[in-house]
């Protein structure tokens, strides 16, 4: 097009026509974007509120509300650009391929993440519980989305991935309010089992931390080479377990000594035969 054929009026008319045709779409897209963002904010707050009422873990609560917000914003963005006349089919395909690639690259992390979500939702253990899992044991210090933190009895910090933790056996030691303390002792064959049982039960009743219900129990579990073997069961509050364990173990011998019950040790009788006689 040479300068002689250029008509400014026609150009202005063409621009005006495009602007007039595009302006309603742009205005509608802007209004949709503003209203959509406002509604998404309300939805995110509502999700967070409902999860808080359900007593969900705060980290899981924030994550779920964030994920819901991001997904809704992505849908809103695709809708807005579609309203402007942009083809979104290829865009959605690219997002899908990118999501698949990221998922394959983060298989282990996603497994831990899924395990963390299950733990936080179903609560097989909580912060403060003493658990045994994955060959480790300790008090649960924190539960994150990807891992769980334990503090061991000797004050080491153990980090366990949530994937295996959610799919394998976990022993929650302190979940119940009371626990049974299991002890054992051997008495001499020359002593009375009834007297030994009576002495141990009286000793158990003297400790206020040992519960009357379920009642303490003493029973014979076997006959060894040097002793009659007794098992002792006493119940206590979970918080008192170790105090009762060590105190009862220490009190057994004085109680048996008081009742003239002996605790034997391995020994052999040797008989010498004089063949010269």
TrEMBL record:
Entries under SUPFAM superfamilies matching the protein: Mechanosensitive channel protein MscS (YggB), C-terminal domain, Mechanosensitive channel protein MscS (YggB), transmembrane region, Sm-like ribonucleoproteins
Keywords: Cell inner membrane, Cell membrane, Ion channel, Ion transport, Membrane, Transmembrane, Transmembrane helix, Transport
Coiled coil start-end: none
A matching Pfam family: MS_channel_1st
Ranges of residues in domain Mechanosensitive ion channel MscS: 109-175
Membrane topology field: Multi-pass membrane protein
TM regions (residue ranges): 26-51, 63-85, 91-122
Principal location class: membrane
Domain Mechanosensitive ion channel transmembrane helices 2/3: 69-107
Source organism, top-level taxon: Bacteria
Subcellular location: Cell inner membrane; Cell membrane
Domain named Mechanosensitive ion channel MscS C-terminal: residues: 181-263
Record-stated family: Belongs to the MscS (TC 1.A.23) family.
Role according to the record: Mechanosensitive channel that participates in the regulation of osmotic pressure changes within the cell, opening in response to stretch forces in the membrane lipid bilayer, without the need for other proteins. Contributes to normal resistance to hypoosmotic shock. Forms an ion channel of 1.0 nanosiemens conductance with a slight preference for anions.
Subunit structure of this chain's protein: Homoheptamer.
Name of the protein in its database record: Small-conductance mechanosensitive channel
Annotated source species: Pseudoalteromonas obscura
Organism lineage: Bacteria, Pseudomonadati, Pseudomonadota, Gammaproteobacteria, Alteromonadales
């Amino acid at each position: 097009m040479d300068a002689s054929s250029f008509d400014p009026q026609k150009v202005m008319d063409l621009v005006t026509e495009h602007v007039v045709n595009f302006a309603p779409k742009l205005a509608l897209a802007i209004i949709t974007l503003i209203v959509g963002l406002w509604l998404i904010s309300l939805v995110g707050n509502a999700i967070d509120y409902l999860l808080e009422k359900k007593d969900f873990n705060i980290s899981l609560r924030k994550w779920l509300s964030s994920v819901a917000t991001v997904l809704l914003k992505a849908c809103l963005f695709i809708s807005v650009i579609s309203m402007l006349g942009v083809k979104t089919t290829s865009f959605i395909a690219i997002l899908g391929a990118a999501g698949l690639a990221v998922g394959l690259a983060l298989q282990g992390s996603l497994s831990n993440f899924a395990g963390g979500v299950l733990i936080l939702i179903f609560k097989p253990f909580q912060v403060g519980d003493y658990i045994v899992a994955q060959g480790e044991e300790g008090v649960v210090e924190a539960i994150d989305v990807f891992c769980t933190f334990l503090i061991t009895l000797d004050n080491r910090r153990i980090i366990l991935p949530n994937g295996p933790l959610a799919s394998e056996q976990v022993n929650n030691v302190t979940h119940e309010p009371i626990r049974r303390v299991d002890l054992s002792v051997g008495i001499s064959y020359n002593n009375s089992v009834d007297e030994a049982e009576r002495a141990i039960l009286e000793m158990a009743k003297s400790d206020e931390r040992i519960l009357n219900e379920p009642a303490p129990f003493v029973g014979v579990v076997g006959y060894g080479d040097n002793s009659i073997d007794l098992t002792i069961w006493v119940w206590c509050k979970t918080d008192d377990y170790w105090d009762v364990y060590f105190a009862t173990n220490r009190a057994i011998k004085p109680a048996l000594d008081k009742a003239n019950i002996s605790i034997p040790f391995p020994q052999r009788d040797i008989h010498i035969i004089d063949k010269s006689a």
